[in-house]
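Budget justification aside, the reviewers requested a transparent look at the raw inputs and outputs of the sequence design task funded under Objective 1. We therefore reproduce one unedited record. The lines immediately below are the structure tokens for a 445-residue chain.
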């Protein structure tokens, strides 16, 4: 069968799709990956075929527009919001806060400021045009790239979301639709239905809820940490892909002291333009400790550091799946790639999450699981981080918690293992008669 992956122009979102894409490719299926032109080279370096669609996603321009719309959204929908980002976050889980007015404001702001930027009219048109010619059997789309669902619906392909983290959209969507159903028919407004319904009308179709949450969802989050959402999920083990890299000589040696990885990921430094945790406080916290610290920080991030302690080694980049197996602990921003890789290798964690997407909720879940500790980025002090690190390195409960998550992760089907499941679901959901008719005969599954 032919499988089309679709994501928006962020490198870590591409990386989240590579392992499954290659599992399908190795199983004999035809695979290509569509994204904004900015990511063409990134995709090509994975060995997959890149399909540029839409215009370049200028992140500086997008972030400036987001800041402008944050203020407008707050003024329009929640004048008492404590900060301008309230309605551009979907990480509210408290039932008493999930009122219709709040969720309607969130979906209105997110649809106009985020979803329509990541799936612009140009991107949707280009992706649909490619899909009409290539005729995929299955479209696998990033949960923020609704263009993938549209292209699947127009061409009759089956389609599924591939999560990069927690299912915030599915969780809030479930609560929101329950509130909408309780309102008078004339007041059942739905920003996503309006937008995606308008998009589908352009192609002679109509809105259905699978355009928002997929026909099913492929989920790398350990089942014990998944948010409670009543949608069909296919669990898959998160297999790290960090891009091209090499193992430096020092990493081949067994560390003489406990090794600690300190990383803030690439999302904030590449997409958001900065880090939310104080790098100076992070470095001060580990100074003088009887540990070897490997800090994955680039030159810009290190400008704020006047001097490096002798026990700190800085590297711009090293693959997490090569580094973490040698570590006794990891200090991070709570990004999904880092956290899931730590699960895979049973490494206790200290999370200092910022406000990006689901990092805060993920940090809470990690702490509740007994796998690590959470600290607040805005009030972080070197003393608090030093104390947390001492606990994680010396208290056996954190090693035991990390081992439980490692065993759960290893027991989850690998990307290769779920290929037959995807083949079966594709045959079930693909619209009969909508696949290729005049294409050359091939040995499709």
């Amino acid at each position: 069968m032919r499988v089309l992956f679709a994501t928006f122009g962020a490198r870590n979102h591409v990386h989240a799709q590579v392992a499954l894409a290659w599992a399908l490719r190795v199983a004999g299926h035809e695979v290509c990956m569509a994204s904004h032109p900015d990511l063409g080279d990134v995709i090509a370096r994975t060995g997959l075929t890149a399909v540029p669609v839409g215009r370049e996603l200028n992140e500086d321009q997008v972030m400036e527009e987001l800041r402008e719309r944050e203020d407008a959204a707050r003024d329009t929908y929640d004048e008492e919001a404590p900060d301008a980002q309230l309605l551009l976050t979907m990480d509210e889980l408290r039932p008493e806060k999930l009122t219709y007015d709040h969720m309607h404001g969130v979906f209105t702001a997110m649809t106009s400021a985020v979803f329509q930027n990541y799936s612009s009219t140009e991107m949707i048109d280009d992706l649909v045009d490619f899909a009409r010619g290539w005729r995929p059997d299955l479209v696998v789309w990033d949960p923020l790239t609704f263009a993938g669902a549209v292209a699947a619906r127009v061409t009759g392909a089956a389609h599924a979301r591939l999560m990069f983290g927690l299912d915030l959209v599915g969780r809030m969507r479930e609560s929101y639709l329950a509130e909408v159903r309780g309102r008078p028919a004339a007041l059942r407004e739905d920003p996503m239905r309006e937008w995606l319904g308008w998009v589908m009308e352009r192609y002679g179709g109509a809105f259905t809820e699978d355009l928002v949450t997929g026909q099913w969802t492929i989920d790398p989050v350990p089942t014990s940490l998944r948010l409670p959402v009543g949608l069909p999920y296919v669990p898959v083990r998160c297999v790290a892909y960090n891009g091209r890299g090499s193992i430096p000589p020092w990493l081949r040696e067994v560390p003489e002291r406990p090794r600690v990885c300190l990383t803030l990921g690439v999302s904030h430094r590449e997409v958001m333009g900065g880090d939310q945790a104080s790098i100076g406080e992070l470095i001060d916290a580990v100074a003088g400790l009887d540990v070897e610290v490997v800090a994955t920080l680039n030159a810009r991030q290190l400008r704020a550091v006047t001097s490096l302690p002798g026990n700190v080694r800085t590297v711009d980049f090293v693959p997490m799946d090569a580094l973490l197996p040698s570590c006794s602990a990891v200090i991070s921003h709570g990004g999904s790639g880092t956290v899931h890789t730590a699960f895979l290798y049973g490494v206790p964690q200290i999370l200092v999450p910022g406000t990006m997407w689901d990092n805060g909720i993920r940090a809470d879940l990690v702490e509740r699981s007994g796998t690590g500790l959470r600290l607040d980025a805005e009030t972080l002090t070197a003393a608090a981080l030093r104390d947390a690190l001492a606990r994680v390195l010396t208290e056996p409960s954190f090693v035991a918690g990390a081992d439980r998550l490692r065993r759960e992760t290893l027991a989850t089907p690998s990307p290769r293992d779920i290929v037959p499941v995807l083949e079966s679901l594709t045959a079930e959901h693909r619209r009969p008669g909508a696949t290729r008719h005049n294409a050359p005969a091939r040995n499709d599954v």
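The radius of gyration is 22 Å. The chain has two domains: 2-237+415-429, 249-411. Computational costs for records of this kind are itemized in the attached budget.
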